[in-house]
Amino acid sequence: MGEAAPGEPSSRSATNSIDTATLERIAEEVREVQELGVELALVIGGGNIFRGLAASAHGMDRSSADYMGMLATVMNALALQDALERSGCITRVLSAIEIREVAEPYIRRRAMRHLEKKRVVIFAAGTGNPYFTTDTAAALRAMEINAEVLLKATRVDGVYDRDPKKHPEARRFDRLTYLEVLQRNLQVMDSTAISLCRDNELSIVVFDLRQRGNIRRVVMGEPIGTLITADEAQHGE
Questions:
Q1: Backbone phi and psi for residue 156, each to the nearest 5 degrees, phi listed first
Q2: What angle is formed at CA 216 by the lines to CA 210 and CA 218, rounded to 5 degrees?
Q3: pLDDT digit string, tens, across residues 151-176
Q4: Comparing 5-14, 20-29, 48-57, 84-93, which segment has the lowest mean pLDDT?
Q5: What are the chain's domains?
Q6: What is the per-residue pLDDT across 173-207, written as a single tens digit (0 to 9) for each?
Q7: Exposure pattern of 49-85 as b/e (b: 16+ CB <10 Å)?
Q8: What is the C-alpha separation between 177 and 18, in angstroms, rounded?
Q9: DSSP string spanning 90-105?
Q10: Closest Cα to residue 9, out of 73, 17, 83?
Q11: Whole-angstrom Cα distance, residue 177 to residue 154?
């Protein structure tokens, strides 16, 4: 189970909010992993187009802003679907908000059948409810489809004790427990998502999506990024 986004856009203009080069690279890496026989489901964010929380902070009604953010994830899902199918993957986009003209409605058993048929499943529109983040949607969908692990693809190479962009001396954790993430307020994912993973003992791996080949590496079990589990016996910074 992976969580991905179409990448940091090369331009923030309204006409170029999706980085097609990044999409094509991710699609190629996903295809390589799928060819290994791995069942892949992707949860897509929409922050490169619209962030509901940011809009609500500027006075927009929170529910309306969140729904707009969900629609942005559908746009990203369709863009990623196009890139994946051009790379040779068979895909299905399942949306938590019903938009039958462009995506199938999310139905758990349908999603699992698609995975069994070796299709890449892309979950869009979050949970379909305002006030819930893409992180929470990823955790929820992972539980529903019985995923073995939740892969958090991001723009840093793991979890740090502080923002590495602002603090060059920041230290990266190789391993953490869910409780440590919550107690240290590390903001890997929102607390609802972390708690959901903790309650269901779903491990999380946070890794750098920008490094080519990392999707395959993390799926193959190479020690990259930060592993978050319930295991308190072995962890370190």
A1: -130, 160
A2: 80
A3: 999 999 999 998 888 998 999 999 99
A4: 5-14
A5: 1-148 (3.40.1160.10), 152-237 (3.40.1160.10)
A6: 999 999 999 999 998 899 999 999 999 999 999 99
A7: bbbbeebbeeeeeeeebbbbbbbbbbbbbbbbbebbe
A8: 34
A9: -EEEEESS--TTTSEE
A10: 17
A11: 19
Residue with tokens 């962890």: 235
Q: Match 């080949």 to its residue by tokens.
A: 213
CB-CB contact of 226 with 158 (8 Å): yes
| Per-residue tokens: 49 | 């187009």
pLDDT tens, 113-127? 999 999 999 999 999
- CA distance linking residue 12 with residue 104, whole number of Å: 29
- The answer for residues whose C-beta is within 8 angstroms of residue 228's C-beta and 6 or more apart is 159, 175, 176, 177, 178, 181, 188, 194, 197, 203, 204, 205, 206
